[in-house]
Amino acid sequence: MRAQFVMSEIGVGLRRNLTMTFAVIVSVALSLALFGGSLMMSDQVSTMKGYWYDKVNVSIFLCNKSDAQSDVNCAKGAATEDQKKQIQADLGKMSSIVEKVTYESQDTAYKHYKEQFGNSPLASSLTPDQMQESYRIKLKDPQKYQVIATAFNGRAGVQSVQDQRSILDNLFQLLNLMNRAALFLMALMLFVALLLIVNTVRVSAFSRRRETGIMRLVGASGFYIQAPFIMEAAVAGLIGGSLACVFLVLGRYFTIDHGMALSSKLTLINFIGWDSVLTKLPLILATSVLMPSLAAFFALRKYLKV
């Protein structure tokens, strides 16, 4: 097969169907950009889970005098010194799952509240004796929260056991929902792109039916006839895939590093690095070539008699 002939046929085909080729490029670019974006979103959620789940604590809140009047778990009154010592002793026996235990007194809890919510109207009416004492527990494995909850929930002197991870779970569920929506939209765009590719190949094959008929008469092989059409689709797909890679790189650059500069504005979020972006680009480029090529190959088998 002469490479010069194949390349010239590719150029002819792309020029003849310029509008449809442009539509293929745009649809492939958008669908693969969504594909890469969903993969990066999945990495971001995993990174955030690893970062935050490693930092969250389980808190055992103790009953105080005001809780005795309003909370059924504290009906027997505020936590006594013996109850506090027993809780500390039991936590000490859980060294296999407990990494660190920090006691927070009422004065310390009041100080932290004033630092965080000092401007709220409620802050001026609170006093230290209204705050709750607590034990902040750092677990070796955040998944072991239920062990602590089972051991201390309902115990005398304990008002409640709270896992801070449950607060984050709502955020992660929202992010996962957004990720699934992006995947659905990506699948829809890929389907549209495949339809455009098939139609483009069919139109191109029909417009060159005289040339392909002559090639069949002179004994050209099926692959020799099909190759220009397949490579046209591959080239269009590769251009679209390259644009998708550019979109992802620019998206990461302008949203996290510069432009919106989320990395400096949202310092509490551990954003994905460039390695997460760069590792997706080869997959996107390979998909951008293989997907149109296979679509064109099967379309030609059905619509081009070779």
Structural write-up:
One of its GO terms (biological process) is cell division. InterPro entries: ABC3_permease_C, FtsX, FtsX_actino, FtsX_ECD. This protein is of the alpha+beta class. The chain has 2 domains: 187 residues, no CATH class; 85 residues, Alpha-Beta Plaits (2-Layer Sandwich). Helices cover 67% and strands 8% of the residues. The protein contains 12 helices and 4 strands, in the order H-H-E-H-H-E-H-E-H-E-H-H-H-H-H-H. Helix 9 runs antiparallel to helix 12. The chain is elongated. The mean pLDDT is 79.
What tags apply to this protein structure?
306 residues; alpha+beta; Alpha-Beta Plaits; 4-stranded antiparallel β-sheet; 12 helices; 67% helix; 8% strand; elongated
Instruction: Give the termini distance in whole angstroms.
Output: 16 Å
- Which sequence of SSEs, written as H and E, runs from N to C? HHEHHEHEHEHHHHHH
Unreliable stretches? none
Alpha plus pi helix count: 12
Radius of gyration: 32 Å
Indicate how many domains the architecture comprises: 2
Mean pLDDT: 79
Count of distinct strands: 4
- The helix/strand class is alpha+beta
Largest sheet: 4 strands, antiparallel
Share of residues in strands: 5-15%
User: What is the molecular shape?
Assistant: elongated
Topology, please?
Elements: H1 3-16, H2 18-53, E1 58-62, H3 67-70, H4 81-92, E2 98-104, H5 106-117, E3 134-139, H6 145-152, E4 158-163, H7 165-207, H8 209-217, H9 222-257, H10 262-265, H11 274-278, H12 281-303
Antiparallel strand pairs: 1-3, 1-4, 2-3
Helix pairs in contact: 1-9, 2-7, 2-9, 2-12, 7-9, 7-12, 9-12
